[in-house]
Amino acid sequence: MLSSIKQRMNRDEEEGFTLIELMVVLLIIAILLAIAIPTFLGARNTANARSTQENLRNALTAEQTNYTAQQSFASNLSTLEGALTWSSGAISSKGGTTVSVSTFTATASSTAITNWTGTGSTDGVMLMGYGKDNNCYAIFQSNNSAADFTAYSEWQASSTGCTAPTSPPLAGPTAGSSASAQAVGATAAWYASF
Length: 194
Fold this sequence. Notes:
This protein is of the alpha+beta class. It has two helices and seven strands; from the N terminus they run ααβββββββ. The protein has helices spanning 2-9, 19-70; strands at 85-87, 98-108, 113-117, 124-130, 135-144, 147-156, 190-191. Strands 1, 2, 3, 4, 5, 6 and 7 form a seven-stranded mixed β-sheet that branches. A hairpin with a 4-residue loop joins strand 2 and strand 3 (113-117). It is rod-shaped. The relative contact order is 0.12.
């Protein structure tokens, strides 16, 4: 036993990791990072989009609450939903809680709605927000008895921010389809959900 202790103490050779072993460890770390970083960035972009969409849904809830009491939509409901900033124009700063509101009235013929206008008693409202993901989002709610629907739109923001899109088709979008004739530019259309 004494001789084995003496042998260990007299040892001049030190052993460590070889260069190949270190390179294998670095390769494994690089592979893990290559998998993790895109997943993280995708999750972050999704969270940024969902934040704006949730603000619009909260604004729509406030608008529907007001519509139940007043029978028309309003352009500023800060007393009902104080967490949002209510606006009536284009939105230039992204990622905030600003919601742009436009109210509409459906003009009807004897058979169907023929147009959305911005005058009279309001039975339609469009809510728009500018997400941190550099996309614009909009919800259009129609409470008209001839065409009761909710439509959703998403499009790439311009260099100046988000401007209001044209109103959706008069009868609203069908599930899973778009209304390209009512698109904002060539990239945005109205859908049955986000």
